């Protein structure tokens, strides 16, 4: 792994800042109004090589560690951008690298790294299962040639912008897995180009409009045929592979929330230093200054936990507790900073030209998805603190 030293990490940060400067708030604001995907930005990030941060060098990627990957996503959000358009390629990488076959890696990773293949979609959540992933019903039935998939996912983001899809589906009926509810689910890497070309009627996508600019969708799988080579790792072990990836996802998204937090602190501080009411800067008032300082303290503390989670990942240590803590603390801290920033701006906080209301809507998601903070607290209560399970 090409781990960077402290100076090199700062240089990486500077390079991402420079790249993001070409995509200022006006760019993201317009996309938000139109609910459009940031194609130009994602292309630029891909061409720079930074989107392939977690792809090993032997497959054409940067071969960085988790710490570097989190710096990239943090800086995108800190600049006023929204890393949601491209983060999935980073967090799906763990399952593919750890559990994918050498053939799958050789076939896909170099093309993902070069940008000729886009890999941004992860299809897990279902309406009837919700947070209880082990209750999903989408079924992949084994046939001689491969699998036939049927089911409905109520959330699958960026699937219209992706060539590859990571799909979690049941391969053993729920009533046959017995007490081990985590068994019987399998993970597939589906080449959507073939599906779109040869059997488009089996893969129906319905965009879902949300309160912020997020390219998310419902997906209906209707007798979609996929070859056996799509299976990642062992049949029936998919839930475990997804769990592996979830801690990476939590750490990466924690860094995005931290980026948002710094965006709000930067924005609130400069407005507090500039806006004058009652013949003084509003930042002179402790009613304005202290909430900003308090939100800054919360962001800094969450940031330390994010680095701790990333460090443990990079050193191959168990990091479930730290990944969950980082996700929880950073999402709460970014929301605190968002509210403080909005209060600091008074009425202008609601005006789109100031970008506070846009980022306010964006950062609210981190408390709910990819996993709700209640589930994080349940993990900490049960798995770390040893209290009884509630479900
Ligand atoms: C913008 C967006 C994009 C998304 N993109 C994707 C995607 O690309 N792929 C994908 O697979 N999913 C995606 N999701 C889905 C996301 O992962 C889920 O929304 C999230 O996991 C929560 O599940 P749910 O919405 O079904 O909530 P539910 O499970 O219905 O929960 C609702 C509320 O009840 C609480 N709750 C439920 N059970 C318990 C309990 N036992 N104890 C305490 N509280 C409980 C939850 O914490 C939550 O607050 C996306 C979601 C959003 C909002």
TrEMBL record:
Superkingdom: Bacteria
Signal peptide interval: none
Segments forming domain Acyl-CoA oxidase/dehydrogenase middle: 121-210
Principal EC category: oxidoreductase
Pfam families (alphabetical): Acyl-CoA_dh_1, Acyl-CoA_dh_M, Acyl-CoA_dh_N
Cofactor(s) required for function per UniProt: FAD
EC nos: 1.-.-.-
Domain Acyl-CoA dehydrogenase/oxidase N-terminal: residue ranges: 7-115
Single GO MF annotation: oxidoreductase activity
Limits of the Acyl-CoA dehydrogenase/oxidase C-terminal domain: 236-374
Cited Gene3D superfamilies: Acyl-CoA dehydrogenase/oxidase, N-terminal domain, Butyryl-CoA Dehydrogenase, subunit A, domain 2, Butyryl-CoA Dehydrogenase, subunit A, domain 3
Keywords (A to Z) from UniProt: FAD, Flavoprotein, Oxidoreductase
PANTHER family in the cross-refs: ACYL-COA DEHYDROGENASE, ISOVALERYL-COA DEHYDROGENASE, MITOCHONDRIAL-RELATED
Similarity annotation: Belongs to the acyl-CoA dehydrogenase family.
Protein name as it appears in the record: Acyl-CoA dehydrogenase family protein
Record organism: Planococcus liqunii
């Amino acid at each position: 792994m090409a781990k960077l030293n402290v100076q090199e990490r700062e240089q990486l940060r500077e390079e991402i800042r420079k790249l993001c400067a070409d995509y200022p708030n006006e760019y993201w604001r317009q996309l938000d109004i139109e609910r459009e995907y940031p194609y130009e930005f994602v292309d630029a990030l891909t061409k720079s090589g930074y989107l392939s941060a977690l792809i090993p060098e032997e497959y054409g990627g940067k071969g960085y560690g988790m710490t570097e990957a989190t710096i990239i996503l943090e800086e995108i959000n800190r600049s006023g951008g929204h890393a949601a358009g491209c983060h999935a390629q980073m967090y799906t990488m763990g399952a593919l690298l750890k559990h994918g076959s050498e053939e799958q890696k050789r076939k896909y990773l170099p093309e993902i790294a070069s940008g000729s293949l886009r890999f941004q979609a992860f299809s897990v959540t279902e309406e009837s299962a919700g947070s209880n992933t082990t209750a999903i019903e989408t079924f992949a039935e084994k046939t001689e040639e491969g699998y036939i998939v049927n089911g409905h996912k109520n959330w699958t983001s960026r699937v219209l912008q992706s060539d590859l899809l990571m799909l979690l589906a049941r391969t053993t009926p729920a009533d046959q897995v017995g007490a081990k509810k985590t068994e019987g689910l399998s993970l597939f890497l589906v080449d959507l180009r073939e599906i779109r070309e040869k059997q488009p009627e089996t893969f129906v996508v319905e965009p879902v409009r949300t309160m912020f600019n997020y390219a998310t969708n419902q997906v209906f799988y209707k007798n979609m045929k996929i070859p056996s080579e799509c299976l990642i790792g062992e049949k029936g072990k998919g839930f475990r592979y997804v769990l592996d990836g979830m801690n990476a996802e939590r750490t990466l998204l924690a860094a995005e929330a931290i980026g948002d937090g710094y965006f709000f602190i930067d924005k609130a501080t400069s407005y507090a230093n500039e806006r004058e009411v009652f013949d003084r800067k509003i930042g002179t008032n402790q009613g304005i200054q202290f909430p900003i300082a308090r939100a800054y303290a919360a962001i800094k503390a969450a940031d330390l936990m994010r680095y701790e989670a990333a460090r443990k990942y990079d050193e191959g240590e168990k990091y479930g507790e730290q990944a969950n803590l980082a996700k929880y603390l950073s999402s709460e801290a970014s929301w605190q900073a968002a509210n403080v920033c909005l209060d600091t701006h008074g009425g202008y906080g609601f005006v789109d030209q100031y970008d506070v209301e846009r980022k306010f809507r964006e950062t609210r998601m981190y408390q709910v998805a990819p996993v709700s903070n209640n589930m994080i607290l349940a993990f900490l209560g049960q798995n770390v603190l040893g209290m009884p399970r509630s479900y």
